[in-house]
């Protein structure tokens, strides 16, 4: 087949996709079927479930009511759970993105073996399952754990400290989970930055910190935005870290929905809670994106 | 405005010595070209001048101040990068005003000054443009304006023209020259292009292997190269291997690749019979004419006292190279060339027998890479 015929073949495929005829629909079918079966249908079931009546026994009683939503909006306990979920989301995101920014910058500046080691160590934890690596923090942070033994033997503390289960442990666990994603999101953008540009800034009189804020940060802001959204969405909906490294005070809405569904068998309230949080997360994430990209577009400093 | 002194400057990367004990003085307001092949250490030298590299040993002085250990943001030098390195998130005006902003100049004044400098490089109408939307030549002008805006003592140019096409490059060379005359700043310009160096420079420093081979005005270097490296780097020439037969009062008698003995008037200290030489026959110094069919001309040309100053050869190739024509001549198994301007060219054709003659005074003789009479400096 010569080049001209190849070209006409691409043109043919392009035409099909543009016209959205049977050929392109056929290509999209597997994905569409998957989304339908595993996302759209369960989501609709969830929506339907949230309007059902709460049961005396069993999981639910069929009906049409807003009682489940009312219960969540009225409950002080649920308010606190929601508040804590967002608090954990904000703390874990700020810590993970700041550490990720430093780490990505270090990996960007490193060369040769050091660079490979830095990048490999950030990918390595992704090869272990989430529950196992989160659970691994318990023997490290527990009152009779490794960190306490170390601090005591160095004489830095008088008594044993409960690093976990606690808020501290929860944050450490959650940051540990999202950190690799934050680093990779920032590094992928940072790696396209031409170092000459930073040198030019220093050459024109910008100190090291100033050159970072003037030249590096504006350039990596898209990566920071992605890292923030991923960390935030994941941390607000955290489950593994607070359930393994937190106390009862560190209950997130994801854990509470699990309780409602699997322990209390109150499916309508569980479903309503899930849908309310989905809406809240969507709004919060959009606000974060707006905030970060807005500040990119609005930069005007001569 | 300031003079620059580099003293015994050395930069090593592990086992690799990029710059090796380099000494160089640059006058206040001079436009110096650091000329050399890639990897000769010229960019490293420039970066040490700007503070972007720390010398392994040696000193950098700008004016009366020792700046060897000063970071780039404390020196009043400014670099125009090969990649131009414009700040992608800032407008052209913000780019040019950046250095003034870092110096703490207030906004109104820095905008005004940035606009003035943009006018100098004829980019005034692009003040609000995004650098990403500019062409190579325009980016180059903005990069130049950004560096000029801070009124540096020394402007450092790291092959900023090498990414431009030929016509634009030649135009920018002339403009750079004019801008230099206008601002009276010391310019240090790194390039591997000898034509660019000859067009721009007040003086040229030729670098090889981390060291300076020769410093001087362009004409002086061209007329009087100290080494074979300089002679080869300055342009195309005919280098002919030879062996010393004997040293005579007026110079050297040598057997050449032409299978003929020639005599060259040159200082002959330090050479003895049997030593290998390289003789440069510059193409512009050849006088070539067709052998007359009766053979009369040959006898006339060759009879120049006892010294051979003409040889017989055959045209083997004629190449049209745009504005000039290059003729290749085979003499005794060795090929040499000379050029003529299109329009002035003779009607020599492949296969024509010719006589090639020269003035022995024009020949440059090198022994072990050094020019005889100039070597060992």
UniProtKB/TrEMBL annotation, chain A:
Please name the PANTHER family in this protein's record: INNER MEMBRANE ABC TRANSPORTER PERMEASE PROTEIN YDCU-RELATED, INNER MEMBRANE ABC TRANSPORTER PERMEASE PROTEIN YDCU-RELATED-RELATED
Highest taxon in the source lineage = Archaea
- Domain named ABC transmembrane type-1 is located at 82-288
Q: Which organism is it from?
A: Halolamina pelagica
The protein's matches in SUPFAM superfamilies, at most eight in alphabetical order, are given as:
MetI-like (SSF161098)
GO process terms (BP): transmembrane transport
Membrane topology type = Multi-pass membrane protein
Show the stretches that span the lipid bilayer. 25-47, 81-105, 117-137, 167-190, 211-234, 269-292
Instruction: Please state which protein family the record places this protein in.
Output: Belongs to the binding-protein-dependent transport system permease family. CysTW subfamily.
The protein here is known as Spermidine/putrescine transport system permease protein
Task: Show the InterPro entries listed in the entry.
Answer: MetI-like, MetI-like_sf
**Pfam families from the xrefs?**
BPD_transp_1
Ranges in coiled-coil conformation = none
Its annotated compartments are: Cell membrane
Q: Which CDD domains match?
A: TM_PBP2 (cd06261)
**Keyword terms, alphabetized:** Cell membrane, Membrane, Transmembrane, Transmembrane helix, Transport
Q: Name one GO cellular component term.
A: plasma membrane
From TrEMBL, chain B:
Q: Name one GO molecular function term.
A: ATP hydrolysis activity
UniProt keyword terms in alphabetical order: ATP-binding, Molybdenum, Nucleotide-binding, Transport
Question: Pfam families attached here?
Answer: ABC_tran (PF00005), TOBE_2 (PF08402)
Q: Does the keyword Transport apply?
A: yes
Q: Tell me where it resides.
A: Cell membrane
Gene Ontology cellular component annotations, sorted alphabetically? ATP-binding cassette (ABC) transporter complex
Listed under catalytic activity are:
L-arabinose(out) + ATP + H2O = L-arabinose(in) + ADP + phosphate + H(+); D-xylose(out) + ATP + H2O = D-xylose(in) + ADP + phosphate + H(+); tungstate(in) + ATP + H2O = tungstate(out) + ADP + phosphate + H(+)
- The record places domain ABC transporter at 4-234
| Enzyme Commission code(s) on record | 7.3.2.6, 7.5.2.13
Main subcellular localization, coarse class? membrane
Its placement in the membrane is given as:
Peripheral membrane protein
Classification via InterPro entries: AAA+_ATPase, ABC_SmlMolc_Importer, ABC_transporter-like_ATP-bd, ABC_transporter-like_CS, Mo/tungstate-bd_C_term_dom, P-loop_NTPase, Transp-assoc_OB_typ2
Give the protein's function.
Part of the ABC transporter complex XacGHIJK involved in the uptake of xylose and arabinose. Responsible for energy coupling to the transport system.
Describe, as the record does, how this protein assembles with itself and its partners.
The complex is composed of two ATP-binding proteins (WtpC), two transmembrane proteins (WtpB) and a solute-binding protein (WtpA). The complex is composed of two ATP-binding proteins (XacJ and XacK), two transmembrane proteins (XacH and XacI) and a solute-binding protein (XacG).
Family stated for the protein in its record: Belongs to the ABC transporter superfamily. Sulfate/tungstate importer (TC 3.A.1.6) family.
Q: Which PANTHER family match?
A: SPERMIDINE/PUTRESCINE IMPORT ATP-BINDING PROTEIN POTA, SPERMIDINE_PUTRESCINE IMPORT ATP-BINDING PROTEIN POTA
Task: Please state what the protein is called.
Answer: Molybdate/tungstate import ATP-binding protein WtpC
């Amino acid at each position: 087949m010569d080049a001209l015929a190849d070209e006409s073949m691409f043109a043919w495929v392009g035409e099909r996709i543009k016209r959205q005829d049977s050929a392109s629909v056929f290509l999209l079918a597997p994905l569409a079927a998957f989304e339908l079966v595993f996302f759209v249908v369960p989501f609709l079931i969830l929506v339907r479930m949230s309007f059902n009546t709460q049961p005396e026994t069993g999981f639910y009683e069929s009906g049409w009511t807003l009682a489940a939503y009312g219960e969540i909006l009225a409950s002080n306990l649920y308010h606190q759970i929601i508040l804590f979920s967002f608090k954990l989301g904000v703390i874990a995101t700020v810590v993970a993105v700041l550490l990720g920014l430093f780490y990505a910058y270090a990996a960007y500046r490193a060369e040769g073996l050091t660079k490979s080691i830095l990048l490999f160590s950030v990918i390595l934890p992704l090869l272990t399952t989430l529950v196992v690596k989160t659970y691994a923090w318990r023997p490290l942070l527990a009152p009779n754990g490794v960190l306490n033994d170390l601090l005591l033997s160095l004489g830095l503390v008088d008594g044993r400290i409960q690093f976990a289960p606690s808020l501290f442990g929860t944050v450490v666990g959650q940051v540990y989970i999202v950190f690799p994603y934050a680093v990779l999101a920032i590094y992928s953008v940072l790696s396209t930055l031409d170092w000459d540009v930073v040198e030019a800034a220093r050459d024109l009189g910008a100190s090291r910190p100033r050159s970072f804020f003037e030249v590096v940060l504006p350039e990596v802001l898209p990566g920071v935005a992605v890292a923030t959204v991923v960390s935030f969405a994941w941390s607000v909906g955290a489950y593994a870290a607070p359930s393994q490294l937190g106390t009862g005070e560190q209950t997130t809405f994801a854990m509470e929905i699990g309780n409602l569904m699997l322990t209390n068998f109150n499916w309508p309230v569980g479903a309503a809670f899930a849908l309310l949080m989905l809406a809240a997360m969507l709004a919060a994430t959009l606000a974060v994106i707006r905030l970060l990209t807005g500040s990119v577009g609005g930069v005007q400093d001569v | 405005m300031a003079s620059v002194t580099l003293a015994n400057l050395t930069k090593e990367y592990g086992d690799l010595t990029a710059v090796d004990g380099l000494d160089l003085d640059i006058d206040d307001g001079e436009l110096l070209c650091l000329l050399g092949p890639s990897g000769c250490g010229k960019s490293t030298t420039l970066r040490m001048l700007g503070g972007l590299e720390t010398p392994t040993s040696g000193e950098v002085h700008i004016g009366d101040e020792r700046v060897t250990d000063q970071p780039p943001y404390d020196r009043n030098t400014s670099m125009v990068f090969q990649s131009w390195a414009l700040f992608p998130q800032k407008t052209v005006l913000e780019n040019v005003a950046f250095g003034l902003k870092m110096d703490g100049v207030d906004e109104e004044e820095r905008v005004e000054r940035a606009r003035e400098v943009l006018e100098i490089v004829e980019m005034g109408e692009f003040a609000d443009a995004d650098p990403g939307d500019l062409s190579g030549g325009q980016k180059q002008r903005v990069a130049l304006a950004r560096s000029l805006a801070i009124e540096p003592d020394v402007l450092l140019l790291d092959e900023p023209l090498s990414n431009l096409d030929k016509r634009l490059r030649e135009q920018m060379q002339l403009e750079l020259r004019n801008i230099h005359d206008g601002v009276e700043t010391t310019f240090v310009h790194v390039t591997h292009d000898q034509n660019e160096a000859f067009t721009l420079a007040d003086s040229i420093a030729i670098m090889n292997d981390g060291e300076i081979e020769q410093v001087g005005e362009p004409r002086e270097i061209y007329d009087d190269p100290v080494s074979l490296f300089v002679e080869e780097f300055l342009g195309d020439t005919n280098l002919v291997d030879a062996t010393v037969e004997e040293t005579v009062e007026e110079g050297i008698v040598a057997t050449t690749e032409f299978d003929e003995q020639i005599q060259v008037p040159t200082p002959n200290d330090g050479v003895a019979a049997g030593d290998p030489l390289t003789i440069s026959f510059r193409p512009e110094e050849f006088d070539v004419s067709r052998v007359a069919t009766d053979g009369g001309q040959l006898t006339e040309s060759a009879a120049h006292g006892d010294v051979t100053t003409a040889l017989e050869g055959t045209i083997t190739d004629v190449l049209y190279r745009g504005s000039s024509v290059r003729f290749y001549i085979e003499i005794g198994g060795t090929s040499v060339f000379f050029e003529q301007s299109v329009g002035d060219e003779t009607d020599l054709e492949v296969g024509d027998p010719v006589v090639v003659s020269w003035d022995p005074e024009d020949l440059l003789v090198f022994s072990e890479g050094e020019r005889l009479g100039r070597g060992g400096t």
